[in-house]
C-alpha cells in the first residue's frame, strides 16, 4: 500500500489558479476530510470530472471555494488513486490546504515523487519520465515539441527494439549452452551480424543528434566579441529587450563575461557579452580579456562587432584573427546610422551585416542568419537526444557493440562477443530504465520540482 503524498504543483507564487495534488491508495478518503462537495461525497465522485466544493483548513474553517478532480488507479498519472484541488492561486490558501492534508494523514511529496511513482508503476518509461522535466523547462517551441515527443515515447520506441534484439541473441546463446540435450537450433553468431550492424548504425545516428539536442535544450553559446566600446553590451541589451549590462561611453566598462539567455528568431542563444579584446596593463581587465578569448573557443557562435563609423584598427584585426577559424561566425558593422566607413568586403566573414544597434536596424537580418546556422536537421518530434546522461549511456552501448562486431570479424568465441553485447544491453537499459541503478533514478528525479 503506497502512502499518500501531497504537494502544491503550481509553485509558491500568486496566480489565478493554484493546484494541490495528492497520490496514494487512501488519498480520496484523506482529501474528503478537507474538501466538502456541495453535492454528494468525494469518494463517490465521477472519474476525471471537476466537482465543486469548499476547501477547509485544520480548524475546519472554509478558506476557498474550488474544484476537485478524482482519478482512480490505474487510470491516473501516477498509476495510483489521485486527487487534485483547483483553487484560487493564493500561496496562503494553498499552504493552509496543504497543512490540513498533512494533519489528515498525507505526507509531503519529495522532489519528482509523482513522476517517480509513475515510472515505478509502469505508466512512464525512464526516457518519458526524464522528458517531463525537459518539457517543463523548455524555452522554445522546438524544445517543447521534442520533449513532448519523448514524453509520448518516441525515444523509448527507438531503443526498445534494439534492446529486444540483444536480449534474443543472448537468450538463444545461453539456451544452447544450458540445455545441450534439447532440440534447439545451433547457435551461430554470424547469423546475427546483420542485426548487430543495423542496430549499431541506429545508435550512431541517434548519437549524432546530441549536439543539436544540446543546443535545443540549453541554447547555443554565442560570444559577442570586439574591441572596447563598439557596441557589444548594447547588442546584448537590444536582443534581451532590457538593460542587462551597463553601457557607457567609457571604454572597458565590461571587465568580465556577462551571460543572458535570449530567443533570437526561433533559436535560443546564451549570449555572452565579453570584455573588449585588446592589450592592457590593467591586471583585472587583462583577466577579462583572457576570459573573452576562452568564451570564443567554447562558443557555438561568435558575433564580431566593429564600429563602422571609423576605420578598422589593429585591435579590430586582432579580434578578427581570433574569430576567423570559428565555423559559425557573424560580423556586425555597427553604427550604420552614422554612415559606414567600413565595407563588408573588408571583413573575412561569410556573414557580414550592417546594423544600427541603437535604432534596431539590421537585427532582423541577424535573426534570419542565426536561424539558418542552427536550423534543425532532425525533426523536433522526440527523435533528438538532449540529455547528457542518455548520450553517455548510448555512446557506451555503441562502443560495446562495435567491439562485438570486431570480435565477430576476428572469429572470436561467442562468449567474448556476448560479453560486449551484454555491456551494450546494460548501457541501453540505463536509458530505458531496464537496468538503471536506484541511485541514478534518485538523481534523475531530484531535478524535478516538489509538485511534479
Write the element-wise H/E pattern from the N-terminal end onward.
Answer: EEHEEEEHEHHHHHHEHEEHEHEEHHHH
Outline, from the CA principal axes?
Answer: flat
Helix tally equals: 15
Instruction: Name the CATH superfamily classification of the largest domain.
Output: P-loop containing nucleotide triphosphate hydrolases
Portion in beta strands: 15-25%
Low-confidence stretches: 246-256
The CATH class label of the largest domain is Alpha Beta
How many discrete domains?
3
- What is the correct CATH architecture of the largest domain? 3-Layer(aba) Sandwich
Strand-pairing-aware structural class: alpha/beta
For the termini, the CA-CA separation is 21 Å
- What is the C-alpha radius of gyration, as a whole number of Å? 29 Å
Largest sheet: 7 strands, mixed
- CATH topology-level fold name of the largest domain: Rossmann fold
Average pLDDT: 86
Spatial order of the strands in the main sheet? Answer: 3-4-5-6-2-1-7
Helix amount: 40-55%
Q: Count the E strands.
A: 13
